Amino acid sequence: MKGIILAGGLGTRLYPITLGISKHLLPIYNKPMIYYPLVTLMQAGIRDIALITTPEDYPLFNKILGDGQQWGINIQYLIQPNPEGIAQAFIIAKDFLQNDKCCLILGDNIFFGEGLEQQMIQAQEAPGATIFAYHVSDPERYGVIFLDDNKVPLYIKEKPANPNSSLAITGLYFYDNDVISFAENLKPSARGELEITDINNIYLKAKRLNVNIFGRGIAWLDTGTHQSLLEASQFVHALETRQGVKICAPEETAWQKGWITDDQLIQQSKYFDKSDYGPYLRSLIKQDR
Fold first, then answer.
1. pTM of the predicted model, to two decimals?
2. Taking every annotated instance into account, which residue ranges of this chain make up the domain Nucleotidyl transferase (predicted)?
3. Number of structural domains, the chain?
4. C or N terminus of the chain, fewer CB within 10 Å?
5. Residue 79: beta bridge partners?
6. Residue 288, pLDDT above cutoff 80
């Protein structure tokens, strides 16, 4: 299983704050936004990751993340010259994926909660494709899945004007290797994009689509607007302050999984000594002992 983080685009919904920087590098409270989807893949045990970004933003991502070796993972960078839809990610990453399954996560999505890791592991083992749905108050902003009375998926519609379903498809997707050929044979939608909804509907029609609905124990935040960006920072701040933990710190996840040693964690923590991030990383070892 390989991972893809889609972190391209222009971030026009967040103008003017994204005029000079990728939205995926904006802060969510005390960490860059890109840390959150990266750690989600790490929590799923995925260590081979491709980050898709723009030619202009690539140097900054590389400066912040490097090749991932410091966290026991491998990060490769792929370029998306023009944003032409989420499904374009599979075409860009074709050589990276080769014959492997993949997990695609959108670079502006945050997932957190009890049981998330187990659900992602199950999705890796399931045949076909697995997507995750979440009840929202504004489904018209998303791809929406419609279920029958027995909760069997009927169809998915992208940004419906008058949806009678509140189940939005989140930006976390698991696919077998057929997704590459499906993406290559897609036709652009009316808005000129290769739609991820079309990919999901192909799997659905072939009865190869698994739909998991996130319950109340898992939070999903889409940080694509000014309001949701603020709400995400407030959410992370509240949890970290109340619980005394850091959400989505890659060093912590790598250490917990045994991908880096105690000594490596201590060494990396020294880089952050002038903030509370460094002392927090060292405190993990003390708590463990």
1. 0.96
2. 2-237
3. 1
4. C
5. 53
6. no
